[in-house]
Design a protein that fits this description.
Layout lengths: L8 H32 L4 E2 L2 E3 L1 E2 L29 E7 L2 E6 L15 E4 L31 E3 H4 L3 E6 L4 E6 L5 E3 L15 E4 L2 E7 L1 E3 L6 H4 L11 E6 L1 H4 L11 E6 L6 E6 L5 H22 L1
Helix pairs in contact: 1-5
The protein binds calcium ion (CA) (4 copies).
Length: 303
């Protein structure tokens, strides 16, 4: 198309202003599409918004986004009842979905809190944490585990949704490096990447609310694109309103990107969601100027 429009200098001169306008429009269109891709990543729209699940760094047996559907951590029970399947985001509505029943737990193992990182430095799903002393794993599970208390200085989460699953309520706690978190039952030596499990103490309560709870009757695979496993097609969901983010709460803003982490008491499965940062308007303008400039340069070389 470019070449056809450049048959002679006279023609080119008369077309030049229109051509530049087209180039700028094309550049802006490319930037617009690029921005959409940046915002959505590989996400796909569902009943609960975009699936924002990413790979948790361990295991490669799963399907779907992050290989997280029909996947639990290596060496752990592999079944739908233990499967955390995805984080979804619709505006400021964060939904977690699993074959695991958050409301009742499973075999005495309760659901965990949702940890949030907003400045990109969380040590999520590590295989080792320098300086951290892991509790020996009790291989025959004959004693009551001690559930180590872990300093947030190792994990660097910024907030936690401290969830009362039975009551349908949660507190938003702003964490600091001295906040204390609790590891999983098998967590210390056996299933390191799943940690931490729940909030223990420290930090500051900055808000809270009710969450929308769904049972499996409301949450089918067709709502989410998630799969049943070995004939078990139950899916459970819970939706948390993070509007405190939209309200511009100090230090937390989804536009800067965020990471979400959840596991259950035994750490059988580890789930991570991520929102990519949205470029600032100034950055987009720079990108646009640069791209238009590059196209202009290329065109001059051809002429
Ligand atoms: Ca599944
Ligand atoms: Ca999973
Ligand atoms: Ca952090
Ligand atoms: Ca997992």
């Amino acid at each position: 198309m470019l070449e056809n429009n450049l048959k002679g200098k006279v023609v080119m001169k008369t077309l030049k202003p229109i051509f530049n306008q087209k180039l700028i429009s094309a550049a802006l269109a490319i930037i617009f599409v690029g921005t959409l891709i940046l915002v959505s990543g590989n996400a796909s729209a569902t009943t609960y918004g975009d699936n924002i699940t990413v790979y948790d760094g361990v295991g490669t047996n799963g399907t779907g986004l992050g290989q997280e559907d029909n996947e639990a951590e290596p060496g752990m029970v592999q079944s739908q009842a233990w499967d955390l399947e995805g984080f979804f985001l619709n505006g400021t509505q964060l939904t977690i979905v699993g074959g695991y029943n958050f409301y009742t737990g499973k075999d005495g193992m309760d659901a965990g809190d949702i940890f949030i990182d907003t400045n990109g430095d969380a040590v999520a799903s590590p295989n080792t944490i320098p300086g951290f002393i892991y509790e020996p794993y009790d291989s025959n599970d004959s004693i009551t585990e001690t559930y180590q208390i872990v300093s947030n200085s190792y994990f660097k989460y910024d907030y936690v949704l401290d969830i009362d699953w039975a009551a349908g309520t949660f507190a938003i706690i702003q964490l600091d490096p001295n906040s204390l978190l609790k590891d999983t039952e098998y967590g210390s030596a056996y299933n390191i990447p799943s940690n931490p499990w729940i909030y223990e103490s420290g930090g500051q309560v900055v808000g809270g609310g009710d969450f929308e709870d769904y049972n499996n009757a409301n949450t089918s695979g067709s709502d989410t694109g998630l799969l049943g496993w070995n004939g078990d097609d139950n899916h459970y969901a819970a939706t948390f309103n993070l509007s405190f983010i939209a309200a511009g709460f100090t230090g937390i803003d989804l536009r800067n990107g965020a990471l979400f982490h959840n596991t259950m008491e035994c750490g059988n499965d580890n789930l991570i969601g991520r929102v990519a940062p949205v470029p600032e308007p100034a950055t987009m303008l720079l990108l646009g100027t640069g791209l238009a400039g590059m196209i202009g340069l290329r065109r001059r070389k051809k002429a």
